[in-house]
Structure formats: structure tokens, C-alpha cells
Amino acid sequence: MRVVRLCSVFEPPPEALSGRGVRFDPIGGMQNHTACLTRALDARGVAQDVVTTRPPGAPARQPLGRSATVHRLGAPVGSLRQLYAIPAAPLVSRLARGATLLHVHLGEDLAVVPMAQAAAGRARIPLVLTLHSSLAHTVEGGGLRGAVLRHLGGRIETRAASTADAVIALTPRLAELLIADGVPAGRLRVIPSGVVPADFAQAGDDPLAHIARPRILFSGRLVEQKGVAYLLEAAAMLRTRGAQLCLVGDGPQRRALERRARRLGLAERAHFLGFRPHDEMPALLAGADVLVLPSLYEELGSVLLEGLQAGLPIVASRTGGIPRALGDAGLLVAPRDAQALAQALDAVLQDGGLRVALAERATERAGDYDWEVLADRVLDVYGAVSGAAVPRERALEVRLG
Fold first, then answer.
1. How far apart are CA 34 and CA 358, in angstroms?
2. Distance of alpha carbon 116 from alpha carbon 103, whole angstroms
3. For the whole model, what pTM was predicted?
4. By CB count within 10 A, which of 27, 106, 110, 295 is most buried?
């Protein structure tokens, strides 16, 4: 079985996490998802070609594991990234001619779906579509970009979901909405993102040891969608004495958020830690007292699943697929409600019994998000649409670099 995987973002090598690479949002849930899935399928003997964008500092072509290759295209710049479609389109078409199927991952990149449809159609191979953040049903926000994503992108997404041989939704909520749009239920599968439990077996040294407790951990891009401005407001309202806010990530709003933190009197308590390699996440989570996801919109954040695996109490926004994924393992608040967010964080930090109960429930739910199980479910989708034999062989995991 040979798969062409088309995704606008993919896990970068460590050298792309600093300098100009910061502007490329190199760390995120879709990056983790596509990389973990590629590794898991490589361990099962699936040959893969991954076509994606090229962050500054990343090589244009890089092997992964035994039989996967990452092809990074486009100029290594932070803006106009979708121009990577110009060199990517002919490469995807060429790779598709020798492939069993084409699997396209849709986040907020409008170029990937038409490119995938054209290549799969010419090669006469099945097309599998994974919706990470539905342009029609997940994305919110004002401005020209938000309007284009929802209206133009929503139409592109709806048409692709109606014609793809299989559609993978990350959450039951999204699957239900797609069925209401007319996508046949028989072609829909709910397969969430996952985690690799072995990564959490030994967290290692505490990377937050220089920061006093209690520690509130946020991990994500510093963009409007993630609701960090409201988190800073909530941090300024906290009653829990000495609570520290640890912000892992970077992005275009970092300087504005740092200024906001100073204005709110948080200069000594809000720690902007920048991007960290994904393999540090288990240690970062182990060093925190509570994980917070204040997203304005989100279908299913990977860091939520990592928090469950780490057995960490979680406070999150009531949006997208988060409520059903989190269940009773955390506290939910309305997006943009800084006061409710502060109250929920205080409740977790000040009530030891609540922390223990949430942590135990998190550990119980974590088993639903194991990549070893989820990869087999993706393989079942591949087998169903292609009629090809599904490999089940497993080998040692091999990482980039």
C-alpha cells in the first residue's frame, strides 16, 4: 500500500522552531496529527509520500522511518504560504499515479482540496478527506479572512466532503453536522487525533522548575483563535495567591500579548516560553498543575488529549468537539468569558479533592486516544475505499531528524 498524504502543515525538524521559523506556526495539533499518523502507518509497512509546506530551516526533502518521505515545497516564508500549491500540484499528480490512494488533511488551507481532487481524479485513485477544523462549522471570527474561510472555504469543503470516497471527522459533533449537510453516513468515520502513550511513560526533568507553583499551562499558537487575551484577563482576576501562567507557543500576537500582560500587572507571573519541541510536551504537562484551553473556536485540540494522557486537570472552552471529548474530566466555560475562566481555574487550584477527581477521570478517558488503536482505524478506512490488503505489521518508531 502506498499513500500520498497532502497537508498544509507537518511536524518540522527542531531547527525550524526558532528564528524566522517562528512566523510559520511550526507547532500545532494538525502538525502533530499528521506526523503521528504517518509514523504509525510507517511502522505497519505503509509507504507514504507527504507533501506539505516548507518552514524556514526545514529541508526540502526528508526521509521518515522506513518508507516515508516528506516533500516540503514553496518559499520558506511566513506569508502567502498557499503559493506552495504552484509547485505542489504537479508533484502530487505525479506521486498519485503510483499510489493506492490520496489522503488530504484540511485545516484552514483552501488550496489542498482542489489540488487533491484533481490529482486523485487524474490518477483514478480513491480520495480520503480528514477535516481537522471545519471551515463551514468550526471556524469563527470576523474580518475578511474569516469571511473568506467560512463562505468560500465552506463551499469547497462541503463539495469535497460530498464527493470524497471517505471522510474522517475528528469529533462526533462534526460528523453529525456533515450528515445534516448531505454527506452520506456510510462514507463518514469519526477518528480523533491521538497521543503516543509511551511518550508519557517517563516525562523527564521538569522544564518549568524555574517557575514557582501553582502553574497554569497553556500550549498553542499565539493567535486570536486561541483566546489568550481572555486568559490574561482571567489571570489578573485570580484569587489563588502566586499562581503562575506558563504560555508555551509563539505567533503573531506575542508582542501584543506581552504588552497586555504588563498592563494587567502580570509581568512577574506570565511566562512566555516560545515554541518547544513536541517531545517536550509530556514533561511540560507533568510540571503543570492545571491545563487551560481558552480557545474561541476549536474542533479538537491535540493538547487536550495530551492533557488527558498526562492525568492533568483541565479547564477549557465550551466550543466545538471539546465538551464531548473532555466529558467530566475537566471544567468548561464559555469562550471569551474571562471571569468564568478565572473562577474555574481558582476552583481547580484551591480544591485538592477536585484536582484529584479530575486527574483520575482524565486518565480514564485517555485510552480512547491511543494512536496504536486509531492508526488501525485509519487503515480500515484505506482498505475499505481501495480494496487493498491492509498491513498490520509494526516496527520500532522512527522520528524525523
1. 29
2. 8
3. 0.90
4. 27
As a residue count, the chain comes to 401
The DSSP code for 249 is B
Closest CA to 92 of 112, 74, 110: 112
Over residues 297-307, mean pLDDT: 93
Would the pLDDT of 399 be above 60?
no
Mapping DSSP onto H, E and C, the string for 112-142 reads HHHHHHHHHHHHCCCEEEEECCCCCCCCCCC
DSSP class per residue in 141-199:
--HHHHHHIIIIIHHHHHHHHHHSSEEEESSHHHHHHHHHTT--GGGEEE----B-GGG
Question: What pLDDT was estimated at residue 401?
Answer: 38
d(CA 11, CA 8): 11
Strand partners, 118: none
What Å distances lie between residue 231 and 21, 244, 266, CA to CA?
A: 25, 12, 11
Q: Which residues contact 367 (CB under 8 A, 6 or more apart)?
A: none
398 versus 304: which is more confidently predicted?
304
Other beta carbons within 10 Å of 180? 9
Cα dist from 395 to 25, 39, 41, 50, 62, whole Å: 31, 10, 10, 20, 20
pLDDT at 315 (0 to 100):
98
Residue 20 sits at φ, ψ, to 5 deg, of -65, -20
Cell numbers 466545538: residue: 320
pLDDT at 164: 95
Rounded Cα–Cα distance for residues 180 and 226 (Å): 28
Return the amino acid letter for 65. Answer: G
CA distance 311 to 362: 5
Alpha carbon distance 173, 193 (integer Å): 14
- Coil, strand or helix: which one is 43? helix
Reading the block at residue 22, the C-alpha cell is: 517562528
The whole-angstrom separation of Cα 310 and Cα 318 is 21
271 bridge partner residues: 246
In three-state secondary structure terms, 390 is: coil
pLDDT tens per residue across span 150-194: 667 778 888 888 899 999 999 999 999 999 989 999 999 999 999
Q: What is the 3-state secondary structure (H, E, C) of 213-240?
A: CCEEEEECCCCHHHCHHHHHHHHHHCCC
